[in-house]
Structure formats: structure tokens, C-alpha cells
Amino acid sequence: MTLNPLANPKGVNLLCELCQKPAFIQCTKCRVTYYCGVEHQKADWLGIHEKVCQNLISLRQNEPFLASEEERQNRQRQLLHKKKAMIDLTRTTGQKLLFEGKHEQAVPAAMQSLRFAIDVHGLASIELVPSYLILGEASIGLGRLSQAEEYLAQAQWTVLKTPECSNSIKSRLYRNLGLLHAAKGEYDESLRQLANDIYHASEEFGTDDIRTSGGYFHMGNVFYRQGRIDIADSLYRQVTDIWYTHLYKIVKIRTRTPATPKGIGPLISETSEEEEEGLDEAQEAEAVQVLNALYDLREHQPNRQPQDLATVCHALAMLYFVLMDINKAKEFGRKAVVASEGHPDDNLSRSIVEFMKTCDRVPAPPTKD
User: Fold this and answer.
1) How far apart are CA 73 and CA 62, in angstroms?
2) Which residues belong to any copy of the MYND-type domain (predicted)?
3) Cα–Cα distances in Å, from 242 out to 173, 229, 249, 343?
4) How far apart are the first and last CA of the chain?
5) Handedness of CA 206, 229, 308, 359 (dihedral sign)
6) Which of 332, 256, 328 is nearest to 294 (CA)?
7) Tens digit of pLDDT for each residue in 22-76?
């Protein structure tokens, strides 16, 4: 991260990337981004700018003169493609930072995604809602509930006036509203909003999808705060099972033995009926956050069921295997073995043992000097 305090010449109206106030500092890496001071430059760098710095050059420089209409149209198509890619990148980054608990850092990523979404889709488009939701959730995490209400009101109004709005976006809106009411201590209203979240997520993805599980998790948290532990336990168990099943499929596909070609002649590649459903950066961060929270809960829970702890340990072991952290995968695998000894579920125990054998076949990462 570098700065140039002489970057704003007199008579040129440059605005800060974060607050839109007059800017006096320039990023000397891309030279197309400006800030009102070092504090906002650092916040933007940590939140998103490090990832997009070089990408912004072609998007913000003055357009070159192009003689033909075909060249101009081709350039516009390229720019549109780049802007849409930036929307995806900044939103995924913002959501990832939220799952990591880095609410302050998520704001620049969300603002960047909102800026590109407005540029591509216009001010009234439903495509702006995911950015508003990241900003709303970041504000909730920072305790700025009035600001969160403003962002979520804007998102809700856009959803209401868009009849073709997808269930996916509705699900995320209701989840954020549920989080807002939970933060205000309005638990009954929070549960109502989270029920709406689960309904729309189930309509879009199914009841046992990882994208639906977040609603169950947050609903479990609300019941837990109310002291309704049995209901919370049931929801937490469902969340664990959903992630366990998803991760088990990924590990199974990644570790299967390739089919041996038969006969003579050229090798013909056959498409597997079972394709891997991978995790993007935000889903990885969500899995780490949710499963570790459930592990902490189960480990310190009095009168816990051994299978609950064994299952969440095995799920975490598989997650870290997918993330290529073999040491952590083995650590939680061993914890799963110990926990499963107190439960007579042969299938679970056998699955854990097979997983540990798989980990042993993976070369250990090189040690640092």
C-alpha cells in the first residue's frame, strides 16, 4: 500500500473512495483511486483494494480513441464483462469477511460492489440488493443498528417492487432482517423473519442445502438465547448434518480412484454422474465459522450426546481436508475418533477411520525453517 500526498492537483475534483469527500491521497499502484486520508486508504486496502487494485486501471482510465464502431462495441462488451466479474469478486469477498467477523473490512468491499452494480444495472435494479445486504449485515455486526435499518429498508423496498425477484435474494433479505431483530432483542420477530428465510431458501435450493442451513443456524441461536435449548439443539444438529453430508461428498469425489480404462484404442473420457459441488471463498468462511461455533458449543455442553460431538469433529476434519490444512484435518479426525468411542454407531466410526486413513496417504506439508 502506497500513497502520494501530491496526487490531487488544484482545480481537479477528486473524491475519496470510501466517504466521497475531497481526496488528497492517491494509490500509487493503480493511480486511479483516491482517498481523503491515510486511515481510509488503509481501510480500503485491507477490505478490498489489495484484490482489485490492478483491475481498476482499465476500468477507470479514459477510453482510448477507437476509429470504428465495431471496435467501440467490442471494448464496451469487454468492460461490461470486467465490471460483472468485479461485482462477483467484491461481493464474495465482502461476504467472506462477514463470516470471519471482520465487519469493518467488509464495508469497502460492499461499497465497491454497490458502485459497480449501479454502473452496470442502474439505481433501481434488484441486482443492487446483495450489496445492500452485505452493508446491512456489516452494520449489525458493528452495532450500528439505525444504519443497518436504512440499508435493509432500501433492499426490502427494491424487493417489493420487483415481482420477479428470486427466492435466493428474498432468503438473504429475511435472514438479515432476522439478524437485525435478534440484535435488538426482538426474538419473536427475529424467528418469524428467519422462518421466511428458510422457506425461500428451501424453495430455491432445497431444505438440506448448505445455502439453507444458515437460516437454521441463526434460528438455533435465537432459541438458545431464549433458553429453549432442546429446540436449539435440534436445529444445530440439522446444520451439522447438512454440512457433514456436503463435505463428505466433496471428500469422496476428490479421493476416489480413477476408473481403469478397458480395451484397446484411444482413451475416451467419461463424464462422472457425480460432480463436485465445491465451496467458494464465502462458503469456506461460513463453514469454518459455523462448524467451529458448533464444536465449541458441543465440547462445553453438559450431558451432550457423543454422536453430536463426533459428527461435528468429523465435519471439521473433512472441511480442513478440503481446505488443504491436513494437520488440522488430522487433529479433528482424532477428536472424532475419541468422541465416537462413546456412541455405538458403527457407520459413523467406520467413516471416521476411513477418513483418517485417507489423511495418512496425503503427504505432510513442508515444515518452515
Assistant:
1) 16
2) 16-53
3) 22, 20, 11, 20
4) 28
5) positive
6) 332
7) 998 999 899 999 999 999 999 999 999 999 999 998 888 776 666 677 777 888 8
Q: Which helix (H) or strand (E) holds 34?
A: strand 34-35
160 band by pLDDT with thresholds 50, 70 and 90: very high
Per the listing, cell 458449543 goes with 297
pLDDT of 264 above 60 = no
| The predicted structure's pLDDT at residue 73 | 84
Residue 274 in grid coordinates = 457425480
Contact in structure between 57 and 32 (CB atoms under 8 Å): yes
Mean pLDDT of the chain: 88
319 burial class (0-12, 13-18, 19+ CB within 10 angstroms)? buried
What is d(CA 253, CA 13) in angstroms, rounded to the nearest whole number?
Answer: 55
Mean pLDDT of 183-196: 98
CA 136/CA 138 separation, integer angstroms = 5
In degrees rounded to 5, what are phi and psi of residue 225? -65, -30
Q: Which set of grid coordinates corresponds to residue 345?
A: 454407531
Question: CA dihedral defined by 227, 230, 236, 240, rounded to 10 degrees?
Answer: 160
